[in-house]
């Protein structure tokens, strides 16, 4: 029922989301390219929709809470550790080579970043794209608690409760008790993107199970609530709320097509390849590409490459190759090894 063949569209969507985020970062501050790829920052929204779908599928296939935790750990931590180490090492070496003072990251910053919980330790991300990872971890915790409580069969009701809580925080707590609202966002940043994860779960139900007005009502509530959270996201710096709603509508429409098996046209060797390396590409690309390689290619007097060449013909291929190596020699084998060793008796 949930065979790999039926998820190829999601693999392709991951690839599209990943490359859109990469191009958004690489062209930031470089008009007119910036204007072309501005909407790439919403690639993370697409990631969160996909995560809601895939993680709900994963938790249903998990035999125990422990097996779910092991599968998630094996999937995200080994590649992340390597990327954090490479990024911190290159960034430190870059400062030493250019004789710039290095105030960050120190060893403590590096060690805490390895936990992926630096947000709660009030430690800066070594690469600012890591900000999304705490949202993923909090969602894993949320879905795990539902699993332990035996609530997976009531996920639609839980979804309505979550969305109602989000609306309560936005429409009542925020206007009347702004400090309380800020505290809620501080301790549970997932609140801002919760509707996307819930929408992903709901699309899973529509595709593989229930197809009724209740599911579509919940989707509509998720859409409206996420649109209302616009002012609490970084999207306010790039485009209007109306534009954000249009993008959300496109993403929800894409998932409607997927639920009806009408999205196969996006599946091709390129999108599948990008989907395969999407996680490694996401966590390795930004600081190495945007902060080091692109400025070096543009400003180094012996090179002086133009922006287009620097981004598309040098930096992007280099980072894709690096992500491919990390995926092939770290991400995939570590995932298999950890699962084989820790789930052998399950």
From TrEMBL:
InterPro entries assigned to the protein according to its UniProt record, in alphabetical order: Acyl_transf_3_dom, Acyltransferase_3
Domain of life of the native organism: Bacteria
Listed transmembrane segments: 12-29, 35-59, 79-97, 129-150, 157-178, 184-206, 213-231, 237-258, 279-298, 310-330
Repeat in keyword set: no
Gene Ontology CC: membrane
GO molecular function: acyltransferase activity, transferring groups other than amino-acyl groups
Pfam family, one: Acyl_transf_3
Occurrences of domain Acyltransferase (ranges): 9-323
One of the GO biological process terms: polysaccharide biosynthetic process
UniProt keyword Transmembrane present: yes
Protein name: Acyltransferase
């Amino acid at each position: 029922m949930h065979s790999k063949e039926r998820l190829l569209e999601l693999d392709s969507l991951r690839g599209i989301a990943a490359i859109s985020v990469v191009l958004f970062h690489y062209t930031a501050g470089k008009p007119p390219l910036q204007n072309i790829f501005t909407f790439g920052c919403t690639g993370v929204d697409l990631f969160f929709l996909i995560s809601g779908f895939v993680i709900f599928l994963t938790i249903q296939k998990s035999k125990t809470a422990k097996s779910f935790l092991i599968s998630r750990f094996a999937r995200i931590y080994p590649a992340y550790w390597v990327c954090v180490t490479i990024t911190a090492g290159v960034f430190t070496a870059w400062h030493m080579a250019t004789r710039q003072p290095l105030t960050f990251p120190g060893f403590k910053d590096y060690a805490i970043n390895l936990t992926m919980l630096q947000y709660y330790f009030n430690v800066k991300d070594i690469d600012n794209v890591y900000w999304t990872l705490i949202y993923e971890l909090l969602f894993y915790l949320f879905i795990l608690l539902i699993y332990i409580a035996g609530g997976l069969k009531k996920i639609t009701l839980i979804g309505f409760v979550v969305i109602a809580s989000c609306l309560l925080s936005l429409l009542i707590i925020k206007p009347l008790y702004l400090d309380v609202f800020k505290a809620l966002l501080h301790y549970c940043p997932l609140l801002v993107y919760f509707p996307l994860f819930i929408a992903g779960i709901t699309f899973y139900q529509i595709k593989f199970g229930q197809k009724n007005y209740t599911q579509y009502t919940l989707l509509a509530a998720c859409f409206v609530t996420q649109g209302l959270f616009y002012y609490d996201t970084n999207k306010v710096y790039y485009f209007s709320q109306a534009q954000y709603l249009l993008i959300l509508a496109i993403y929800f429409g894409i998932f409607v097509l997927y639920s009806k098996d009408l999205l196969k046209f996006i599946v091709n060797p390129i999108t599948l390849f990008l989907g395969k390396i999407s996680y490694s590409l996401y966590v390795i690309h930004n600081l190495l590409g945007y902060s080091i390689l692109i400025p070096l290619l543009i400003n180094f007097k012996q090179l002086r490459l133009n922006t287009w060449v620097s981004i598309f013909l040098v930096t992007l291929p280099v980072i894709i190759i690096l992500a491919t190596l990390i995926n092939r020699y770290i991400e995939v084998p570590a995932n298999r090894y950890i699962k084989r060793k820790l789930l052998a008796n399950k």
